[in-house]
Amino acid sequence: MNRVDAHHHFWKIDLGIYDWISDDIAGIRRDYQPEHLAPYLKHLGVSQTVLVQAGESLLENDAMLAIADHSDFVAGVVAWVDLTAADAASRLHELAGHDKVKSIRPVLQGIADNDWVLQPEVVSNLRLLPELNLCFDALIQPRHLAVLDQLTDLIPELNVVIDHAAKPVIANGQAAGPDWESGMARLAEKQQIFCKLSGMATEQGPGWQASTLQPVCDHLLSTFGPRRLMWGSDWPVLELVGSYTQWFEAAQQMLSGLSDEDRDWVMGKTAIQFYNL
Description:
- The protein has one domain (about 5-275): Alpha-Beta Barrel (TIM Barrel).
- It is an alpha/beta fold.
- Helix 1 (about 35-45) links the parallel strand 1 (about 5-10) and strand 2 (about 45-50).
- Helix 6 runs parallel beside helix 7 (about 180-190) and helix 9 (about 210-225) packs across helix 10.
- Helices cover about 40% and strands about 15% of the residues.
- The chain has helices spanning about 35-45, 60-70, 90-95, 120-125, 130, 145-155, 180-190, 200-205, 210-225, 245-255, 260-275, and strands at about 5-10, 45-50, 75-80, 100-105, 135-140, 160, 195, 230.
């Protein structure tokens, strides 16, 4: 099968655009580049990846595309654009001209205003994405579930993937809760919305286990189904709580009840189809 990591990052600290890597998470305040990820991919048989923005800067777009142009495994790039900027439309058109740019991701989780993405200028720019064959990565938290529902009503033709399962509040093994469950189920009713099986280990925190994450995975499988669910590592953020291999093996455990065909969708085919890799 063609295994795909649908969500990872690279960064170089000296670019000076990663202020979010604070002293609290100093363990990942170092460079992460293709040569650091490649051994994991080779060992686990992951043949393609989707490289996702980690800094709110056009400078990082250039850095990611330079890597993608010379990489034998980066098949797609999720870029950043300030969707409120006067030149946002021209930036989107420019990015769409690169065949490896597949999606756009504003950092919604870092914006205090839950309704930021519903601003007229933002919606207007997001309406361009389907025309440009670009998708939308929704980096959201549970507080945004109803907002994403409204956004996809406004732009039903927009293909959306929810990053990190909307970051359910599951620290220390607590249950995701009925609000997250019902909100995700509502979004899953819309066929243009997909979801990433990623980031869950970090949300649970140190000592996480596949068995305690199983209920979250099961809810995603029962609502979105294997053909709208895609596995991602969220490496190197993942290294705060575990290794690439640990998370890959945990995913195999959580998906062990699926047929081989359905597991192949989650571990690769869904990402290939969604991002047109």
